[in-house]
Amino acid sequence: MVSAPGVFKQSFFHGTRANLKPGDLITVGYPSNFEENRSWSWVYFSSTLDAAIWGAELALGGIKERICVVEPTGSFADDPNLTDKKFPGNPTMSYRSKEPLLVIAEVFNWTGHAAEQLQYMKDSLAKLKEEGKQQVID
């Protein structure tokens, strides 16, 4: 059997409530999707649609949740906030970069988590914050 190179590139997703469109760049220094009055020195993204959906659902703001297909413009690394800290290895395929992400497209047909599951996650994150345990490695 002969092995041929794949014809498909790896897909990456970014969940947000920001009003992004194809051609936009997601760069460091903008307000965090998850914490008021804080900006990150990294941009975060995932190879799994589920992780991006969580990102969109948990993002602050009252505007529409969005999932963007993105392309890293530079090097990137595993997201230490999920990799090994919460999940051994990187099953969520979550990454971060200091370089911008180029928005390629928006995913329109996605299904969010059940309301009970989303509320449980929000309650769990609120409890961690109250206990001072919701620390992000930035």
CATH fold group: ADP-ribosylation fold
Spans of at least 5 consecutive residues whose pLDDT stays below 50 are none
Lateral strand order in the biggest sheet:
1-4-7-2
Q: Distance between termini?
A: 45 Å
Q: What's the CATH H-level superfamily name? A: Rifampin ADP-ribosyltransferase domain
CATH class: Alpha Beta
Provide structural commentary.
The protein has 138 residues and is α+β, with helices and mostly antiparallel strands. It has one domain: Alpha-Beta Barrel (ADP-ribosylation fold). Helices cover 19% and strands 22% of the residues. The protein contains two helices and seven strands; from the N terminus they run βββαββββα. The strands form two sheets. It has a four-stranded antiparallel beta sheet with strand order 1-4-7-2. The model has no long low-confidence stretch (mean pLDDT 84).
In short:
The chain has helices spanning 49-58, 115-130, and strands at 12-16, 25-26, 43-46, 66-72, 77-78, 94-97, 101-107. The protein has 138 residues and is of the alpha+beta class. The strands form 2 sheets. It has a 4-stranded antiparallel β-sheet. Strands 3-6-5 form a 3-stranded antiparallel β-sheet.
Give the topology:
Elements: E1 12-16, E2 25-26, E3 43-46, H1 49-58, E4 66-72, E5 77-78, E6 94-97, E7 101-107, H2 115-130
Key structural traits:
ADP-ribosylation fold, 19% helix, 2 helices, 4-stranded antiparallel beta sheet, alpha+beta
